Structure formats: structure tokens, C-alpha cells
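User: Here's a chain of 506 residues. Predict its fold as C-alpha cells.
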Amino acid sequence: MVFTAPQLEYGALAPMLIIFSAALIGVIVEAFVKSSLRSALQLTIAMGGIVLAFAQVLRLRGTVHPNAALTSVIVDGPVLFMQGTILLLALLALLLISDINHFAAQASAVPGSVEEQAALTSGRIQTEVYPLTLFSVGGMLLFPAANDLITLFVALEVLSLPLYLMAGLSRRRRLLSQEAALKYFLLGAYSSAFFLFGAAFLYGFAGSVSLDGIRTALTSGPGNDIFFLIGMASLSVGLLFKVGAVPFHAWTPDVYQGAPTPITGFMAAATKVAAFGAALRIFYVSFAGANWNWRPIITAVAIVTMVFGSIVAIAQRDVKRLLAYSSIAHAGFLLTGILALNRSGLEASLFYLATYGFTTLGAFAIVTLVRDSGGEVTDLNRWVGLARRSPVIASLFAFFLLSFAGIPLTAGFVGKLTIFNAAYESANIAVVVVGVLSSAIAAFFYIRVIVMMFFADPIEDPVAVTIPSMNTRIVIAVSALVTLAMGVYPTPVFDAISSLATFIHG
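Assistant: Prediction complete.
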């Protein structure tokens, strides 16, 4: 038997290889470098790895690699755009994560135990959050580039497992954080099981695990339609769980609330890009030939997700839970891009993902600044009159909320306009109507928060707005500038997307 070495295009795989290499170096640093040096060194390694990976993505622009890793990984225009977006969001998220005081000094210690107190007193703060973040970023880069179901599953687990751990690393409210991590892990395990179940049935249908093989089986002749329908439905469950669509959203509010806020921001922004990137490739490439089977289901899911997220958000009194239900509603808006199944839908989805990611990171960065003696204050009742204590911070948060609501001159308005227009062009009128109405409902609770901050009398037990660190200032400033620029003058971004928005087949 002769062994033939696989042909790998290392240049096309370089962004992922750089990130995974940096993550492994971070593990070695965590194991062997003394604690007083670890934090700065870990941040340098993580940010250096992301910058190098982004430089490689820029070098690859304009190229396509249908066989980057045999037939398992494909690098084309949409993949490069999503990888670049994920890396930029991860770079900003790392700046928030660099405030290591958000995280438990020793994650393995029982909350309130002697070991935990000793770690805090001695200053021995573990920094495993940096390599965990990099491993998750590596999985996110691979997820939209995967061209077969096995690679998709591996990427899904690589991006998810670090998030399960990081959700439980909060320094304060440790029990709530650990509960969120456990809930996220258990529900994520169920969704992964559904994903594998669907992959098995799709293999039974097509005789292949590649996305191109499934597409060929759909168009080439009769097959076992029952196998395909079960496989498609089960696979979709795994994807819809990651994007937080109804009825697979139950983890979202609890995890968003319990996880350390920098991790919540990273998860809300970057994971959406990766998950929707994979979903777009699957539905646009593999399942496009059977859209009459899945369109009614995804239409129903999109409508329910938009309505549910917008209505339930009205009742929330915690700012992180409010943003969680806002995220659910936005998942419904993004599903309209999948339903469009045309080039306009793909372009609009890519633009929406980028704008939503930056706006989300900016909003969560501001949440980290509103504190009292016990740490972050997320109770909206205590945000009343916030503008009188910090008008700049309140104004910036209001700006991000207006972008979520889709108010003109913000990136959110352009994103919603383009994605609804794409759905309208594909005759999905019902989704467009519900989307517009849901946006109007969502605008109510966004504006309600703004009214609370600017026009209500401050309470007797006020919270303080801490002076942001330089890293946090950079995150807020960049997020605000991107949100404004993409709302006022989105043409350069659309031009870049237009040159990239074509899926190629392996």
C-alpha cells in the first residue's frame, strides 16, 4: 500500500494555522511562565496572532482556493470576508478581555472557597482566557470555510468548547456564571447530537459528506427524500442553535447574562458571523436545489424569531438579557438573507453581519463601565438618569441602540434596508412585512432605555460610570466610528462585498 501525502495549500490555510499556533503558544505560556508576566505576554501573543492572520486574509483577497485542504476546506470571497470580519471583531474583543479583573482568579476554585480567596489575595490570576479565545476564533475561521459535514462538525466543536468554558469564568456572581456555562454546554451538546444525526442521514441520502456531493445528489436524480428531509432538518437544528433562533434560543438570555461581559460581547458578535457564514454556504450551495422543502420551515422560524425576540425584550429589566433578546430578533432578520437565496441576499447578509458585530461589541463595552461597589450593574432600573452622570457614555450607548433599531444614518438602518430589499426581490413578502413590524416593536424598547437614561429623574442609589481604560476606549471609539461610517457612507463596504460575494464549488 502506497501512502500519498495530501495536497494542502498552506497559504490559503495560513490564517487558521496562525491562530491555532498562537493558541498553542498561549497554552505553553500559561503552563510555564510566572504569573506576573503572563497577562501582558498572553495579550501580546493573542493580538499578534490575530494581526498576522488578518494580514494573510488581506493577501488572499481576490483569490479562490477550491481545494485548500483536499475537498474539505474551500477559501473563496465570502469566506475571506467573514474571516476578516471575525478577526477584526476578535481583535476588539481581546481589548475588552484584557481587563482581566472580569475573570475569576482561579476558575477551578469553588466560589467563595479558601482557594479562591487565596488566589485573589496573592494576585495569582490565571490567563487561560487568551488561548481559549484563540481556539474559538480558529474554529470560527474554519466553520464558514468547511466544505464537508465532518469538517463542519469539527469546526463547530472547536469554536464552541472554549465558549462553554469561558462563560463560567466570571469573577463576580460566580454561581450564576457557572450555571450559564453548564446550561450552554448541555444544550450545546444536544444541538451537536442533532447535527451529527443530520449528517448521518445526509450521507445516507447522497453517499457523500461533501457539500458538493449533497448538491449533486439533489440535482442528478431520484434519491431517498425521507433521508434528505430528516438530515436537513436535524442539521438545521445544530445551526439554528448557534445563531440563537427560536425555538432553539433558550440558552441565549441566561448565557448572555451569566457570562463575563467581554465574553458575552465576543460571543454575540463573532459567533453570529461564523454560524451564519456556515449556514449561508450550506443553504446556498448544498440545499438550494431543494428550496421548496426548506423555505417554508425557515420562513416560519424567521418570522417567529423576529416577533418573539422583539416582544419578549420589552419585558426585560436586565440590560444583558435585553441585548440577548435583541440578538434573537436580529437572528430572525438575518434568516431573511438565507431565504432570499440570491446574490443580493448574500451581499446583504455579509454587510448585516459586519455591522451587527461592531455595534454589539460597542454596546457590551459600555455595559462593562456601569458599576457599583459590587461590580457591573445590569439592572435597568439603576440606569435611570445615567446621562446626568456620564452624558458621553449614555449618548454612545443610545447611538448603538438606535443602530440596533435601524434608525437612518446608522449602520443598522442600511443593513435592514438591504436585507429586506433582497427578501422582497425574492418574493418573500410576508417575511418583509413581519420584519418591518418587528423592527417597529424593537424600536420601542430601545427608545425606552434611551428615555430612562436621558429624561427620567436619577434614583437615590446611583451607579457610577468608571473611567474606561485605554483599551476599552479604543473598542467603543472604533465601534462607534464603524457604525456611523457604514450608516452614512456604506458604498466602499458594499463595493468590497460585491467583488467577493460569490460562493464557488469544490
